[in-house]
Amino acid sequence: MQEEEELKVKTGNNILLKAIIVTLALLLLSIFTLHAGNGSPCKLDNEIPVNSGCPPGGVSYITWEFKDNFVRLDIDIDIIQFDASKYFYLQFYQCVIGDDIFYFGIQNRADENDQMLIFSRWGTRDLAYVEANVAEGGFCQSDGYEGDFVGVRLPNFKLRNGEYTFSLIRDKEDDEGTWYKYIVTEKSTNTKTWCGSIRFDKGAKISRVGSTWTELYGKPWPVQTYRHLPHWDIKVKSIKGDNRFPIHATSFYTDPRWGDHIPMEDISYNSSENSIRIRLGPDVVRKNTARYLF
Questions:
Q1: Paired residues of 178 in beta bridges
Q2: How far is residue 180's CA from residue 200's CA, in Å, rounded to a whole number?
Q3: Angle at alpha carbon of residue 254, lines to 45 and 239, rounded to 5°
Q4: Pairing between strand 57-65 and 130-132?
Q5: Alpha carbon of 133 to those of 101, 141, 186: distances in Å?
Q6: pLDDT, tens digit (0-9, with 9 covering 90-100), for 5-27
């Protein structure tokens, strides 16, 4: 009897010890999983893989398809949160007008502590093709470091949380071509700001297929880890070409240079609002894969 009791005690102790070991193993596994997940200290302190120490470059992309080409583009943006600590470019539409590539958007300039409106076209370096808002501090640019291009810039534009309409509108024609102007409307005050205008081929229209994208650019960060990603939260409430909505939209995360290495970004589509939200930051968890939105 005594031997049986001792055997039962030993067996019970062995079962208890195994239970403790399994519990500790599960606890350690859960801790490891937590620290390896998005937003965790382990992942956040990893260095972002980039080329030559530069910031990551392109981050989030949306490709739009309209039924027809058009002469006026309006994109309604709700700035929910923006972080001025890093250089960041929000590009509203890139494609071609006629046969010439263009883009327009807004850059956050960290060192200058401002935001700058930007509108460029490629295929020439002739400053006769551009008109800047000189009265408000705007200027023209002609260069060749990204291929021959000219553009207009308007620095000291103070972006705030709230709703804006960023518009590209056919303006006028002359003997040399058709001009398009870049206008920003702050919805809360109905304040309109002219960034500048650029000339394209006569009669040229905006292509029905184009893209919206975001970019981290500028000089290398002192510590370039996921923890130091800027916080941006932007909603595309609508985009219209000649007052018509696009027929299709697709989201992407990949940049050819470094692949899908920032999991702390998310592009979501709200079908009831027909809006698209772009979020970036160390606290963002990706819930939506790159996909066909509508």
A1: 173, 200
A2: 8
A3: 115
A4: unpaired
A5: 22, 12, 18
A6: 444 444 445 544 544 454 444 33
Report helix, strand or coil for 17. helix
CA gyration radius, the chain: 26
**Do 136 and 152 touch, CB atoms closer than 8 A?**
no
pTM given for the model: 0.84
- Quote the strand ranges of 187-291, DSSP E: 191-200, 209-216, 232-241, 248-252, 265-270, 275-280
Amino acid at 140: C
The separation between the first and the last C-alpha atoms of the chain, rounded to the nearest angstrom, is: 76
* Residue pLDDT, tens place only, 72-119: 999 999 999 999 999 999 999 999 999 999 999 999 999 999 999 999
Residue length of the chain? 294
125 to 121, 131, 212: CA distances (angstroms): 9, 13, 25
Written as six digits, the tokens of 81 are: 């949160």
Whole-number Å distance between alpha carbons of 106 and 220: 20
Q: Which whole-number Å values give the CA distances from 70 to 10, 65, 115, 179, 249, in the listed order?
A: 83, 12, 28, 14, 17
* DSSP tag of 285: -
Distance CA 290, CA 76 (A): 22
C-alpha closest to that of 164 among 253, 92, 76: 76
d(CA 127, CA 150): 7
Joined tokens for residue 142:
């002609």
The residue assigned the tokens 């919206």 is: 212
Residues sharing a CB contact under 8 Å with residue 194, sequence separation 6 or more, in sequence order: 133, 136, 181, 182, 183
